[in-house]
């Protein structure tokens, strides 16, 4: 294919499996040091926290609540509050929690405000310095526990959604416990899962991809296909589905770090700079019209890759694999998250389109094609 050499960024240690959260307390006890916990309100209300609260409190200084995608002001505030007091960070939550903890861990070792180091708007390179971080995802979607970037969002001042990025920013430890997904609302399960699929799918179709990265992506999408229809079942099939989706999410993080993303994220990243929409839902709303466009593509490499992918995922061929995949995803979804929902004004659509890009797509997508994706995802 186009790119013969791949780089793989990974955790120093990954613990995977149902009940693996139980490994957290021994990890903290083995190396006592001042530790700050980042988490969300949902974790503090959970049975998991109730079971470990007493012991966990002996290993942490305090906790910071992350209720939205962290802004530069949030991160700078946390750093100012804790600089010189914290030696290790634990993040238990979804992608926003883990990204916030990754950014905080890095900025604790850097002197300037975080915006100075951000892609798109920064003017200073990050250094290979960060605090050790233990990441425990409670959703399966972003793969942030295994990526080298921390997403920072400012929807008020500079209106940007950008990454703080360095290979050293991959969390040193990831604990992947599928039981943490049990009881998650259907809309969250589905929106996060389609984010994982989009990471895998765009990495698979990336112009930076090769045999290595595509095999990783295919493996993740196979786990996604196994999991997608049964994510909310409260039985053995549901437990197996959530385990498979946790694996798909992790592989999505590995894949995007190795091969990059495409036009869906080229649009979604700009939309996230101005609207507080769930990132996974945004990706899903853009994925479906992208598949419709892909169904009409005459690009030979896209056609070949789609035929190969459909065969790998479903064990058979399809006359139009992009349309067949589109229909299967919608028919098997546990909730139709792409229907109804938030509104985008014409002015907001235009703002996004003026800044969107095709990233690592195999071909460039023009203004009208990206506009069609936005209009289909958010009809008037």
Automatic annotation (TrEMBL):
Domain Fe-containing alcohol dehydrogenase-like C-terminal: 190-315
A Pfam family this chain is assigned to: Fe-ADH
UniProt KW Oxidoreductase keyword: yes
Transmembrane segment boundaries: none
Residues annotated as domain Alcohol dehydrogenase iron-type/glycerol dehydrogenase GldA: 12-178
Keywords: Oxidoreductase
InterPro entries membership: ADH_Fe/GldA, ADH_Fe_C, Alcohol_dehydrogenase_Fe
Family: Belongs to the iron-containing alcohol dehydrogenase family.
Protein name, as recorded: Iron-containing alcohol dehydrogenase
């Amino acid at each position: 294919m186009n790119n013969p050499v791949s780089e793989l960024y990974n955790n120093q240690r990954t613990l995977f499996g149902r009940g693996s959260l139980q490994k957290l307390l021994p990890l903290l006890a083995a190396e006592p040091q001042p530790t700050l916990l980042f988490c969300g309100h949902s974790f503090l209300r959970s049975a998991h926290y109730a079971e470990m609260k007493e012991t966990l409190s002996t290993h942490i200084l305090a906790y910071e609540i992350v209720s939205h995608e962290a802004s530069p002001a949030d991160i700078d505030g946390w750093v100012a509050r804790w600089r010189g007091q914290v030696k290790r960070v634990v993040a238990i939550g979804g992608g926003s929690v883990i990204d916030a903890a990754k950014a905080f861990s890095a900025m604790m070792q850097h002197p300037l405000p975080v915006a100075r180091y951000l892609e798109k708007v920064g003017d200073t390179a990050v250094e290979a310095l960060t605090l050790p971080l233990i990441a425990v995802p409670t959703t399966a979607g972003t793969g942030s526990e295994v990526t080298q970037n921390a997403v920072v969002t400012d929807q008020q001042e500079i209106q940007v959604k950008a990454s703080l990025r360095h290979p050293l920013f991959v969390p040193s430890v990831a604990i992947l416990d599928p039981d943490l997904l049990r009881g998650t609302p259907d809309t969250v399960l589905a929106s996060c899962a389609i984010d994982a699929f989009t990471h895998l799918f765009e990495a698979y179709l990336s112009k930076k991809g090769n045999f290595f990265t595509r095999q990783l992506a295919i493996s993740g999408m196979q786990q996604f296909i196994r999991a997608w229809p049964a994510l909310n079942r409260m039985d053995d099939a549901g437990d197996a589905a959530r385990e498979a989706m946790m694996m798909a999410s992790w592989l999505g993080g590995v894949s995007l770090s190795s091969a990059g993303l495409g036009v869906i994220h080229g649009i979604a990243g700009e939309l996230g700079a101005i609207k507080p929409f769930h990132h996974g839902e945004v990706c899903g709303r853009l994925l479906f019209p992208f598949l419709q466009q892909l169904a009409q593509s005459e690009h030979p490499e896209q056609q070949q890759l789609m035929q190969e992918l459909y065969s790998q995922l479903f064990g058979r061929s399809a006359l139009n694999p992009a349309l067949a995949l589109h229909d299967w995803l919608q028919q098997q979804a546990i909730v139709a998250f792409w229907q109804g929902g938030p509104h985008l004004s014409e002015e907001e659509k235009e703002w996004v389109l003026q800044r969107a890009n095709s990233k690592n797509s195999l071909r460039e997508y023009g203004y009208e094609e990206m506009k069609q994706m936005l209009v289909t995802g958010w009809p008037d």
